[in-house]
Amino acid sequence: MKWTDKQQKVIDTRDRNILVSAAAGSGKTAVLVERIIKMITDEENPTDVNQLLVVTFTRAAASEMKERLRERLEELQESNNNDNIVKQLTLLNNATITTIDSFCARVVKDNFDKIDLDPNFRIADENEIEMLQSDIVEEMLEEYYLAADDEFMELAEKYSTGKTSDSIGELILRMYKFASGQIEPEKWIKEAISVYDVSSKEEMEQSKWMQGYLELQKNRLEGILSQLNIALTISESEDGPKCAKALTPIIDKLQEITESRTYSAMQSELQNIPSTRVSGKKDCNERKKEQVKAIKNDATKAIKDLTTKQFNLTLNQVFESICETKSSVEYIGKLTLEFMKRLKEQKEEKGIMDFNDQAFFALHILNEYDKDGNLVPSETAKNMATQFKEIMIDEYQDSNIIQEAILSAITKGFGINNMFMVGDVKQSIYRFRNAEPKLFLEKYNSFSDDPSADSVKIVLDKNFRSRREVIESVNFLFDFVMHEEVGGIDYKNGNGLVLGADYDEPPAGQDNSTEFVMVEGGDKSDEAAYVARKIKEITNPETGLKITEKGKDMRPVRYGDIVILLRSMKDNSDIYREQLENNGIPVFAESKTGYYKTMEVMTITNMLSIIDNPRQDIPLAAVLTSPMFGFDSNQLAIIKTENVCESFYDCVEQYSLSGSDAELRTRLTEFLNTLTKFRNMVPYTTVYDLINTLLDETGYAFYIRSMPGGKKRLLNIQALKEKAVAYDETSYKGLFNFLRYIEKIQYLAKDDGEASTVNENDNIVRIMSIHKSKGLQFPVVFLCNTNGTSKNEANQLVSGADGNIGIDCINNKLKTKQTPLLKTYIRMSNKEEDVAETLRILYVALTRAKEKLYITGLVKNAEKQIGEFESQIYDNSELMLYNDVIGAKTIMELIGKTIGRNKAFDCVRTDKDATECGNPLYDKDSFIKVKVEEQPDVILGLAAEDITDSIKKETMLMEMKQLANKENASIEKLFQRFQFQYPYIEDITLHSKASVTEIKKQSQGMEQEEEQDAFQAFGEEVELPEIIPDFEKEDIDEPQYLTGAMRGTAYHRIFELLDMELEEYNQETVKKMIDGFVDAGLIDRMGAASVMRKDIIDFTKSDLFRRMKKAYANNQLYREQHFLMGVPACEINSNTTSKETMIIQGIIDLCFVENDKYVIVDYKTDKVDTMEELVERYHVQLECYKLAIEQILGSEPGVNKVSEMIIYSAHLGQQITIK
């Protein structure tokens, strides 16, 4: 591979601290892999791969890194096999290529004795930790309420709102959350409280936070000054209104205020800004006069906002609010410290910790305090440092201060420059996980461009992902909006994208420019409807968008090439999914909501609730009316009216004994017996087993399987069982606590979303969050809902990046509530951080696109929105002003106010004279097309097909009437019209597309059988899914309850992933292999546990496997081969003579080349007695596979025949060949 000069510099530079700023699509992973390869294959200065510490952001990234290294080493081994490469391949399995969490776990496990830690500790489930925290807070507050201490009761009166959740508890947990991200949590709390410990107004006025507040206000004043200077320039131009006398006094006064050094001085001076009026010369340019007036009026409003909202309190009032809240903050701090102490004790008692604890322990194992109280590397860190010649950190922009301290301890302990950090601060979007982009920026600004310096900075700016149109449009936007004042990075000077990809020119007439679309409408569904229409348009094979496929000619865009990105999936993804589905577009949205609201999950959780406590009317009524027991609302009304009892459960019991309807009495008695049986099981049955038994004995699993979307519903149930397994591994036990566990997950908004039945290779449009898309790329990207606003911070307790804590000032006597200036300052500084992250999120979203980018946003009034955006052309600033960036409420506003300055906006611009004002952005090539989709167009576009159908119907009716009214018309003519016979009636029963499985069922006449299964009445006897008997469970970690299809899927997945390079296949090696698949997320744990290791071992001893290994060694083994082909219907369906082409799709489990011919292998897990049964069932399926291979490879010389078709039965451990 040919590397750029900068990439080569990254690969070759040694013995330095190196920071690589790698732009989106710059190939940083490939460069990092090559750097490692060069280091471990260097003959002069050899480094073993296990002498490198490589830290990645995710486990998937670590696995990918190892796999890439393995592939590169194997390539090198083929061309230059030597002992060192063999050695590195051997060492690679134990190389420390890992996440920071895994590294910390290793540090803690290897050094538990140094921190007096029980070595049998367990990493607790996140929900278990949340439950534990809630329990401790509740227990603690109950003690304080009982003690009724005056100070505590005063605090409770101030901040308890009377809601279900105690606000004091929320304040404690919030302060704990702030503190837990710090290196020394207790010290941080004490220092945050000490800010309130001021003895005078003068001391407060010189405090760090007050000076920070003044700096923020000075930034705002400088923005106002910039605008007024623009007005002054326009005013004094050739035909300007000459308003210098009105503007200059204000400008001079504001300039003077920016030099104020105290709050009181700035507040006083703001009251003395002169009031002037812009009149202008009579013969001036009227447009310029109006422009100056508008700018001056905006400045006046901004100044008024400063005086009435930011400087409305006197210094004395500010000081009083600090004194007033001091006792509250101190007491909350005291409660938080006590909570932390109790939490630590409970964790030690239970032998558990969370990932924060793990990092904290690792930090203190690798660091110690010197005599001055500073952290320095410990002896452990120094010893560990000798193990690693270099420390490499991927995605460094997402590191936090604790991770930095952990890894720095090792490199400092070694005493040399050996830290290699790669990332892109423009893609730091994990602030909610305590990511600290300032760590990256500090090094970026301090490291040298000189390659001989101890600390070197290298910028990889070439983008090898995107077309020129995408890159230029991204650069146009970010050159203007991203600068050092907001975000800390000067995008325009040295941080923009440089074209590196080599794309073919698009077809004639195709414009790949980025499209910025303002969709006029009333709600989000209008924007989603436009997006659906656009997707239909660009996926038209004849007239749609064409994209490049590597190594091939351009092809039409497919649904699978498209992604819709949203800032927030909540309340948005379902709207887009619905609109796309309504337009016949296959779509998948990885929603994180809705799981616990699904019918099947609610039914089971309601049943568990009444098993735990039947005297819960709503869950009881829900279970009775569910398909599980089948009562209707009329029957429930009868039960209730015949018995006047306090609880509905008492009514049910009473009616079962003496109700008027005998049949209803019998059914209720059966229900109560079933309920009693399950209640009796609770003391000795795990929740997992209880759910399994519930599904088994009620037949509920079979009912939901027969419903529409049955596969997804079964997966939802499976996910609930997984949660039961996770719960059983916690320190909590019993059904009651499991229900609390589920409630906690819902309360904390950690709904996992419904189960997915989608494969990443499916041809569907994907809807995902921008965060989820990071690291991915798509040919076509829609960034939608850009005019959506985010909620303002409304918490009582807030914390800022500089360690300050702010809380509302409440006076119980006067019944007043006030926001102290300190809290206002924290919110303002947080807003600055939020906007900076919004810019980075926008950058991530736009740089996912390879070939085409669409940006859409909903506007209520297009004309008004256009006016707001186009007015920006009068602002000649080279960069977007601080006030405009900070004040932007939406992403669309940032983009619109930028493109409004450019010629691209002229197509919708109403003020045509404005194009002559000389804006520096006007003539730049933005590669952006601006469009307004007006509301009537949206409605007509969506309804076009419906309207067309209606017109056809109306026309036909009119023709009929006209025909009937003619004198020579007869009834016979009308009948002739309606008795038309479609000449291809036979073909209407054919599917235009079918899977191989459907064809197999059709050949066996299974349609009727399937239909019966799908609509079988609930409660009728059905075939139970396969249950694994006890004597076969010796190698299963957990008992399983899986359908045959689910178990078959698990077997197929193991066969697909099967490691062909193992030297020996025994119980131990196969278990390790399967566990590795689970850890890598390649198969779920329950599915893997359903696979008998003995079956896999038996397969590896077969003659078939020996042949497969030989083919694998020759690179002629192919697994999970997808195909799509067109064949005449009569060739695959004996019930028709039609030659109409049918599209057949399927997946071949495995095929390999042997003696220049193909051998097809199909794995089966059916429970059969003989192999002939499998031949009978599946011979048509294999014939389709054979037809597919011969059709695809028929033109290839030498290999154009299938010699064998083999079925392997995992159940029988045998194979049979179909010639």
In a nutshell, what does this entry contain?
With 1219 residues, the protein is of the alpha/beta class.
Walk me through this protein's architecture.
With 1219 residues, the chain is of the alpha/beta class. It is built from 47 helices and 31 strands. The strands form 9 sheets. Strands 17-18-16-19-24-13-25 form a 7-stranded parallel β-sheet. Strands 3-2-8-9-1-10 form a 6-stranded parallel β-sheet, sandwiched between helices. Strands 26, 27, 28, 29, 30 and 31 form a 6-stranded mixed β-sheet that branches. Helix 5 (100-110) crosses helix 16 (355-366). The radius of gyration is 35 Å and the shape is globular. The relative contact order is 0.08. Residues 936-950, 966-971 and 1005-1041 have low confidence and may be disordered.
Descriptive key words:
single chain; 1219 residues; alpha/beta; 7-stranded parallel sheet; 6-stranded parallel sheet; 47 helices; 31 strands; 51% helix; 13% strand; globular
Distance between the termini: 45 Å
Measured by DSSP, the beta-strand proportion falls in: 5-15%
What is the helical fraction, as a range of percent?
Answer: 40-55%
Report on the biggest sheet. 7 strands, parallel
As residue ranges, the low-confidence spans are 936-950, 966-971, 1005-1041
Number of helices: 47
Mean pLDDT: 85
